[in-house]
Amino acid sequence: RKTREALAAEVQATLFEGDLDEETWERLEEALIYADVGARTTAQVVEELEREAEEGNLVGGEALSNRLAEMLAQLARTGDDKIDLRPSPTVILVVGVNGTGKTTTIGKLSWHLKNTLGLTVVVGAADTFRAAAVEQLERWGERAGVDVVKGPEGSDPGSVAFEAIARGRERGADVIIIDTAGRLHTQTNLMEELAKVRRVITKQMPDAPHETLMTVDATTGQNGVRQAKLFGEAVDVTGIILTKLDGTAKGGIALAIANELNIPVKLIGIGEQLEDLRPFDPDDFARALLTA
Amino acid sequence: MFDSLSEKLQGTLSGVRQRGSLTEDDINKAMREIRLALLEADVNFKVVKQFTSAVKERALGIEITKQLNPGQQVIKIVNEELTALMGGQSAGVTFSPRPPTVILMAGLQGSGKTTATAKLAKMLKEQNNSSVAVAACDVYRPAAVDQLIKVGAQAGATVYERGTDADPVDIAGWALDQAKRDGKDVLIVDTSGRLHVDQALMEELANIKKRVKPHTVLLVVDAMTGQDAVNVAEQFGEVAAFDGVILSKLDGDARGGAALSVKAVTGKPILFASTGEKLGDFEKFHPDRMAQRILGMGDVLSFIERA
Ligand SMILES: Nc1nc2c(ncn2[C@@H]2O[C@H](COP(=O)(O)OP(=O)(O)OP(=O)(O)O)[C@@H](O)[C@H]2O)c(=O)[nH]1
Ligand SMILES: Nc1nc2c(ncn2[C@@H]2O[C@H](COP(=O)(O)OP(=O)(O)OP(=O)(O)O)[C@@H](O)[C@H]2O)c(=O)[nH]1
Ligand SMILES: [Mg+2]
Ligand SMILES: [Mg+2]
After folding, report:
1. pLDDT at position A187
2. Which residues of chain A have a CB within 8 Å of the CB of B225?
3. Which of A44-58, B93-107, B147-161 has the highest mean pLDDT?
4. Cα B187 to chain center, whole Å?
């Protein structure tokens, strides 16, 4: 892991060397586009930095790169990025498009809650659709040492969610996490099914789900904003889990999502092991966006 | 935003008709709109650069005709160049004269390999009447073997698996022996998802390849992938020299610019489109349709074709 200073130095060295001219701003624009930040948010950031530079407040590469990182972190820091575990039990619904890391993240999160915070966790296997999705979650449950509630294959996901919450409450669980089947945001019937799962949960516990987290794969391009928008409309997403940040993709789409939809990133995934989950740090994220 | 590319171009170039030809300035303005549309479609920015300069060169030479307005004319060029870049004619899997034909699947985590393995098995079984087996070489992802057992059976393929305690390279070699013994026409080897920068797992992939000597290596790429697609394609290309690409999750509304990036940096064709979670949601890839999808303007183009 690189230190912040080392990262900052790399940013500075590549982006703001030489005179401030058209090329500088183009270079910056390219760096942000390359990180999947998207044209709109990129233009906004570059314009603002250019304006501040013209006003003469930012002199030298270091000042510019620091201000830039600050601006990006500010954009990423939207809403409440903490997960409130005070409700008892806290119900967390996990949603997202196919293969983005829902089930894996639930495994890691359960382990973290149990091992680091000493909480009791019950997980609901409400992906009753994908081949071996239940078995996959059960393996994660074994690894994390938490209970997994499942229904018969092909059963209604709402009834599994219902069952998981009922059993979680019986056992006095602190946190109940519901896994759902991956689905594309464009599949209206499946999005309606998801909304129904949410309604079932709310009916059972009026203030639940307390968190609805959506996984976004860090390699995702501009489609990510549409995903977050439509999942948000269907089930009121309260936070993003940005997964697979251990690759070379920067996950800049999360910045566009934060900027355009005000949905904060709450957790990041950095691998396939139990311990590979971290809280989101906007400053680290901002600096990493800009390093080559 | 994308749907308005043609409108934007027509707006940008609206003053041109009277003058009769495109000036460099007109074209630069048009290229800015095209650049933006391609970036929003997730085409890698370096690929966009190369592409727009090629289009610019061609656009500089054109004369304005009566049939098409300048905006349409530029779009026609863009579409032609894009289709050419996407691969011209669509191709398929080549079969070995000495069965079994071995196909190796590779790609990032969650890109759709296991699903595509079963889909391809089903397609080859139904269209070519082949007897197909699949090999379960993902010993890492929890329940990956169970998943392949299920979808493989749905596809009517024999599933060769040895649980999760064996080494993936050994499983692959063993599966090939089984396929030979059982007289299978095709063996499709499913592998675990891996990051292109994960040295140990990339080496494992190279070793699986060495062991089974596949006739075709396919890279499965998620259609929603952003700018990073070129890194992924380059690295997998280097380690596994893949022959073609399966573009997955095309049933969504992503523009799929990653397809263009992958093709442009590796030169490898996109062979199949995966368009859903059901095993039948799998088809031959059509470069021309993909070009139009990336530009987001099928309707405009059918209009241009008629002109
Ligand atoms: N490298 C890396 N891989 C990850 C990470 N998170 C998940 N994965 C991998 O991504 C793949 C898909 O993860 P899943 O947890 O099955 O994703 P999902 O969203 O539940 O998938 P569906 O239920 O099929 O929609 C698996 O191979 C995981 O091991 C991460 O942070 N880093
Ligand atoms: N909508 C849609 N979903 C797909 C498509 N192809 C695969 N999926 C889904 O994407 C998710 C991941 O697919 P898998 O086949 O498990 O992907 P994989 O590459 O084998 O994943 P790992 O083995 O974990 O690396 C599953 O939920 C699949 O159902 C597709 O073309 N369209
Ligand atoms: Mg899952
Ligand atoms: Mg798989």
Report:
1. 97
2. 219-221
3. B147-161
4. 21
Rg (CA), chain A: 21
Tokens of A68: 């830039």
Question: Residue B151: which of A107, A131, A246 has the nearest Cβ?
Answer: A131
Q: Say yes or no: CB of residue B114 within 6 Å of ligand 2.
A: yes
The answer to whether residues B133 and B184 touch, using CB atoms and an 8 Å cutoff, is yes
- Distance (Å, rounded) from C-alpha B204 to C-alpha B77? 44
Q: Could you tell me how many helices (H) and strands (E) chain A has, helices first?
A: 11, 8
Cβ pair A139, A86 in contact under 8 A: no
B295 within 8 A of B40, measured Cβ to Cβ = no
pLDDT at B2 exceeding the cut of 60: no
> Which of B37, B79, B42 is closest to B58 using CA atoms?
B79
Q: Which of A223, A226, A243, A250 to mutate to probe the B interface, most B CBs <10 Å?
A: A223
CA distances from A47 to A74, A96, B2 (A): 16, 33, 23
Q: Please determine, for residue A9, whether its predicted confidence score (pLDDT) is greater than 70.
A: no
Cα–Cα distance between A81 and A91 in angstroms, integer? Answer: 17
Beta strands in A111-159 (DSSP E): 121-126, 147-149
Using DSSP's 3-state secondary structure scheme, residue A146 falls into coil
3-state SS of B149-217? HHHHHHHCCEEECECECCCHHHHHHHHHHHHHHCCCCEEEEEECCCCCCCHHHHHHHHHHHHHHCCCEE
Sign of CA dihedral B271, B274, B280, B283: negative
Instruction: Find the residues whose C-beta lies inside 6 A of ligand 1.
Output: A 96, 98-104, 127, 130, 133, 181-182, 215, 243-244, 246, 269-272, 276; B 109-110, 141, 193, 195
Rounded to the nearest 5°, which phi and psi values hold at B186? Answer: -135, 140
Q: Helix, strand, coil proportions of chain A in percent (round to 5)?
A: 50, 15, 35
Residue B297 has pLDDT above 80, yes or no: no
Contact A132 B146 (CB under 8 A): yes
The closest of B128, B96, B133, B131 to B117, measured between CA atoms, is: B133
Complex confidence, ipTM: 0.96
Q: CA-to-CA distance for A204 and B286, rounded, in angstroms?
A: 48
> At residue A135, what are phi and psi to the nearest 5 degrees?
-60, -40
- CA–CA separation, A225 vs A259, rounded Å? 10
Return the ∠ at Cα B116 (arms to B111 and B120), rounded to 5°: 160
DSSP state of B260: H
Residue from B147, B24, B80, B162 nearest A139 by CA:
B147
What is the bridge-based pairing of β-strands B132-137 and B158-160? parallel
Give the per-residue pLDDT at B298: 56
What's the pTM?
0.95
Backbone angles phi, psi at B198, to 5 degrees: -85, 100
Those of residues 211-240 in A touching chain B at CB distance below 8 A are 217, 219-224, 226
Helices (H), B16-129: 16-19, 24-40, 45-61, 70-86, 113-128
For residue A125, the cross-strand partners are A179
Report the gap between the CA of B304 and the closest CA in chain A (Å).
Answer: 28
